[in-house]
Amino acid sequence: MRRMSFVIVAMCTAAVFLNSHAGSATGIPADSTEREIRAALEEQAASWNRGDVEGFMQKYWKSEKLSFVGSGGVTRGWQTVLERYKRTYPGPAAMGKLTFSELEITPLAKDAALVLGRWQLERAADRPGGVFTLVLRRFPAGWRIIHDHTSSVAPPAKTN
User: How many C-beta atoms surround the C-beta of residue 35 within 10 A?
Assistant: First the structure.
């Protein structure tokens, strides 16, 4: 009986330890990864809300291998994605105020993560929004988006 109690205590201790570390296989605490990624996305939204598209783009991987998927299809390369944002959002009025919500951050490895979330713009004339899936990698300079799939989703119909 004493041996069985020891085994149960050991298993519970191991479960608590493993649960406190990223998805067990990543080798880094999940809360650290989540905190760092949330901070990166908050910085990105703050840049957007200042009308600073180039600042917003600093959280993207500055590579020709960056991919962005949206209603216009696939865009590849950091510079091309920047130009797309500038063309689609030519100034602060078109950019509006950006918020991210419902973030689900899943560490995939010590240097990779998947993020699912919602985006919302508040502008004078409308409130477009939708969903996104990001793949991020941790580089020496911090977390960077290497793939972005963003979709617009119409707001739910109002009922009386």
Answer: 12
